[in-house]
Amino acid sequence: MARFILGRLVKAVFILLAILVFNFFLIHAAPGDPAAVMAGEAGAGDPTYLAELRERFGLDQPLYVQLWIYIKGAVQLDLGYSLRQQMPVAELIADRLPATLLLTGVAFVLSLVFGVIAGVAASARQGSWGDTIISTLALLFYATPLFWVALMAALVFSVWLEWLPGFGYQSIGAGYTGLAHAWDVTKHLILPASTLGLFFMAIYMRMTRASMLEVSRLDFVKTARAKGLKRRVIQRRHILRNALLPVITLAGLQAGQIFGGAILTETVFAWPGIGRLMFEAINQRDYNVILGVFYISAAMVLLFNLITDVVYVIIDPRIRLTG
Amino acid sequence: MSLLEIRDLAVALPEGADRAFAAKDINFDLDRGEILCIVGESGSGKSMSANAVMGLLPQGVKPVKGTITFDGEPILGLPEKEMLKLRGGRISMIFQEPLSALNPLMRVGAQIAEVFEAHGALTPPERRARALKLLDEVGIPDPEAAIRAYPFQLSGGQRQRVMIAMALALEPDILIADEPTTALDVTTQAQILTLIEDLRQKRGMAVIFITHDFGVVADIADRVIVMQTGEIVESGAADEVLLRPSHPYTKALIDAIPRLTQRSEADAQTREPILTVEDLQKTFSTGSGSLFGKRRVVRAVQDVSFELYAGETIGIVGESGSGKSTVGRCLVRLLDPDGGRVMVEGADIAELTGSALRDNRRKLQMIFQDPFSSLNPRARVSRILTEGLIAYGTPRREALARARELLELVGLDASAMNRFPHEFSGGQRQRIGIARALALDPKIIIADEAVSALDVSIQAQVLDLLADLKTRLELSMLFITHDLRVAARICDRIIVMQKGRIVEAGPTGKVLHDPDTEYTRSLLDAIPGQEYERALETAGA
Q: Within 10 A of B315 (CB to CB), how many other CB atoms are there?
């Protein structure tokens, strides 16, 4: 197991390095160089100023030296400087990261847990009223556009009912600390997290239901019944565990997107996360920020793929012992 | 009073099925310590009757009439809670497919311990100890290792032993065995049959043994029931039914059994060989062999050489894992051999690439084992039969005309053209598979277990068809099979393979009746129903 993880980590480092190099050449493929962009934005075309800028950022060095410097920086999480925000990119991202991880992480866990539970419940009563209701709701959530659900949720729960705050990460100027702060953030979190989670919950529910029904027809389930095991035990121990394998594959793919996949929700609920940072950076041509987010996203995808593989290996002995 | 009494049992199929009852008018008794065989072809309702005893019928299939009395108590229609006590406790069951019948994600020990858990017997450490003892009892070589193993780490025979250990855990009164040896090699089958026979004697357990194989029946049955389309057509003591069958269906089934002694005449091989295989090698390796993960190497085919003459049929026989299928696949280049030569009409198939390979490989065509998965379920028969021809440049119209001829050749109606594979029975599908193989006018047919998935009576028809086509179209054939009786029926010469090597080769009569090697002899000894076959011959003579 340790060897497996080590192997995957080594591969991940190489992929990340490849992405870095790709990043680097992406910058240099654009016409002009960052110095020209900066000078242009500052409204100064003075060649000495340009040369000064180039020297300051090391742009007068040969390409391979620049590549080396860039990689060295990136490895130490120095992702350059955002001229727009007048802050180092790494700091900007670190600032926004917790909010995004909180939102998408909570949405992901909620959707997975409730999706699987709903799927199991629906499959256990295949064709009954309960199954029909769960399946219809899931289809509804799946088919409705995310931004519409978000707007409606804000309208109903925040504007009309005034139960929950409709935007932001915390009450501005309230200065809560400790538990009061946590409760404040939780209240702000409920609407965006459930909006984002509903869609994925619908997918997990349908997947779990289909997978449970398929597995329940397999021979070993009949063996389990022939042993005289109770229905619930068969459901949990024999069917669910086997049925979870495809769900985990799907969840792993989606967990990789957790980082950047919440732009819409963050925009509607004014959630100060990475998605909005990215969105603003694109609008403002803030290359260093875009590339920084790209780099961190790639790292996240690799991390979640690794986690998925480890979970898979824990659940399915066939991979652990033959792979 | 018998241990189990079934009276007037009728099991209804869901509406829209091809008949109303899966089984009806089922009457039989089972005594303690008795082995009762239920024989019939697929779809005869033999499994349904047994599943009804366990209360494990598939969804939509329901018993509608009759009684089942177990140990003096009626058990048909008993509430689920009461049935749970019987299942696995007093009546237990083993199934055909030992791989899929075990949960792939659970250790073997845990799956056995579950039986005790389900019935609230013993403490967890005692359960483990009992599981170990059971594994030892059913003849698993290293129980300590097996108890921690996952099903995929065991061989087919070992998995079936685990199933049996599970079924015996609580010393049931009745063991229901549903085709338990059908998926196994002859040698493994013989061991499992001996094991069941032993257990019956030691524990006085009654056995209901469901099978389509009369050889197996002859070896173990005390009494026999023959079923056809849901009804019992004949029943009685084993000797009575097997040697003096009264019902025409039973007679037909018994006549269809291929005999070891039934031998086709081998004509003198003076002609040129059409296929020459020299030193064929194929090695499989799993795992990357890189820094992480160790490499496992299986030498599937080693130094295999033989010649196939025009108009001749060679049988390649061996246990699973002997490399016989790999040889077939290397010949048509579904696998690339690692070494050796495959000469067909002066060209080395093993070496060719690109268009030269395409032009030559049409001379060898393959018929596969599973008539269900070897035809594209989304393609009509017309497409299945013309695809190859069109790929080789035959105009569509001509290809369709040829496809109709082919259907006639294999004994199917031209109306089959517009139908999908699932609309045909297993035997018909295999005929389509044969027609597909013949479409490109091959010189050589390679049949890989082509009749193994078929019932005996269908098997006989398909073998007759193959023999007939062979003479009419002047084909040569390589017949890969694990079934020595089938080989005896159709082959001129036989090659016996073990662990990737040829251990014996010679004329069919010589190999099957006077083998040179110990291995071939052990294969022959494992064939079930040999005494029965001799008895049939004496009776017939």
A: 27
